[in-house]
């Protein structure tokens, strides 16, 4: 049974703090783009990663975005779509509108203001006799990137359920209150009080259901230049860009992290062998300063490489250097108590004692030495991931 909505003329307080995360279902990173980034990382050339990311951005800027417009039947979804597109009801390609239910199946419309963005006019939740669960399945909610929930007169529990499903998918949604012109023509309180009451009541309903703070716009489809319509367009433009680039950033981060992890595993398997030490000129495995320089070079986060990246990004090298926990051996030992203890005087004394114990002593020393190197490698690996995330974010923004 549908629960009654709160009165529009009853103002209620409602604090919110949380935010809705973006979804992670996109895969807009092309195979050639991923291969270029993998190759750059394998070659220890972070500056080439920057170039590959910039090339990928050209594709991401026009990646398709699908926006679904949904709500209860009779709330003016089709009229809103026409207003948002800047098209009159009688014009060619306008969404059909009328007193009776006019949208029976999902219909998509182009959006001249936003290239490669499709607006999907979904049938209202009361357009058929199916349950809300069936409606969600038939409308294939998972395929849309952003939702606009249309409401007027009251914010019903059906709309609350729609919002909860969308939030559960990790996707952003707006609540657009249409027919504001009618509300203003019949209101018995001041205009400012009416607008506040509408927003507060929607927030209270969603807060009572444990929802995140909604983004609410109050509009009239008869005049897209008034009320919140201009702000809606501006917000939509920003969020379309964020959806595209956020998805790209996640794809790039996943690709980079996989390459780095694979490389770290390979090095850990080789670590301690004579061939490993000979190849990289590590004459003394206990010389952690030398090991640190080698690891920096292997992952392309040495000073020379960072300087190249900084120049390419137009930033000072210190901006990347200062976020590293492995800037130098002193920084490492200061920030990692376990590694610091393993290299203090007490540990050196323990090594000297163990060296006098046949077999067991040598095995223990070999294990402790290997632990030192693995721990140092782990710190450099995490630094590499941190620097790459910053590089990716800087390149996108």
Automatic annotation (TrEMBL):
GO terms for cellular component: endoplasmic reticulum membrane. The keyword Cytoplasm does not apply. GO terms for biological process: autophagosome assembly; cellular response to interferon-beta; innate immune response. PROSITE patterns: G_IRG. Pfam families: IIGP. It comes from the Eukaryota. GO terms for molecular function: GTP binding; GTPase activity. Residues 63-239 form the IRG-type G domain. InterPro entries: G_IRG_dom (IPR030385), Immunity-related_GTPase-like (IPR007743), IRG (IPR051515), P-loop_NTPase (IPR027417). Keywords: GTP-binding, Hydrolase, Nucleotide-binding. Belongs to the TRAFAC class dynamin-like GTPase superfamily. IRG family. PANTHER family: IMMUNITY-RELATED GTPASE FAMILY M PROTEIN, INTERFERON-INDUCIBLE GTPASE. This is Immunity-related GTPase family M protein 1-like. It comes from Callorhinus ursinus.
């Amino acid at each position: 049974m549908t629960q009654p909505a709160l009165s529009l003329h009853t103002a209620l307080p409602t604090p919110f703090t949380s935010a809705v995360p973006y979804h992670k279902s996109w895969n807009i990173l092309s195979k050639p783009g991923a291969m270029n980034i993998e190759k750059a990382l394998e070659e220890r050339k972070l500056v080439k990663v920057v170039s590959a990311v910039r090339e990928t951005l050209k594709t991401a800027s026009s990646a398709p975005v699908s926006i679904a417009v949904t709500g209860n039947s009779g709330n003016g979804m089709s009229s809103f779509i026409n207003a948002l597109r800047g098209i009159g009801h009688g014009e060619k390609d306008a969404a059909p509108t009328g007193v009776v239910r006019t949208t029976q199946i999902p219909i998509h419309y182009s959006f001249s203001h936003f290239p490669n963005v499709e607006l999907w006019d979904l049938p209202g939740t009361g357009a058929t006799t199916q349950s809300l669960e069936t409606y969600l399945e038939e409308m294939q909610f998972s395929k849309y990137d952003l939702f606009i929930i249309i409401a007027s007169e009251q914010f019903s529990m059906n709309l609350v359920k729609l919002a909860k499903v969308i939030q559960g998918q990790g996707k952003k949604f707006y609540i657009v209150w249409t027919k504001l012109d009618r509300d203003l023509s019949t209101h018995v309180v001041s205009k400012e009080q009416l607008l506040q009451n509408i927003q507060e009541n929607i927030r209270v309903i969603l807060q009572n259901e444990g929802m995140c703070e909604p983004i609410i716009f109050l509009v009239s489809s008869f005049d897209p230049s008034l009320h919140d319509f201009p702000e809606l367009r501006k917000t939509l433009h920003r969020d379309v860009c964020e959806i595209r680039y956020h998805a790209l950033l996640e794809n790039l981060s996943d690709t980079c992290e996989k390459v780095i992890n694979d490389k770290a595993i390979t090095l850990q398997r080789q670590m301690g062998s004579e061939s490993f030490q000979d190849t990289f000129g590590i004459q003394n495995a206990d010389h952690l300063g030398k090991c640190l320089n080698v690891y920096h070079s292997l992952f392309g986060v040495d000073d020379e490489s960072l300087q190249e990246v900084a120049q390419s990004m137009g930033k000072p090298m210190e901006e990347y250097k200062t976020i590293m926990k492995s800037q130098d051996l002193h920084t490492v030992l200061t920030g990692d108590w376990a590694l610091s203890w393993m290299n203090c005087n007490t540990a050196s004394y323990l090594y000297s004692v163990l060296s006098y114990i046949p077999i067991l002593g040598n095995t223990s020393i070999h294990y402790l030495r290997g632990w030192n190197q693995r721990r140092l490698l782990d710190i450099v690996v995490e630094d590499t991931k941190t620097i790459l995330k910053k590089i990716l974010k800087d390149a996108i923004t």
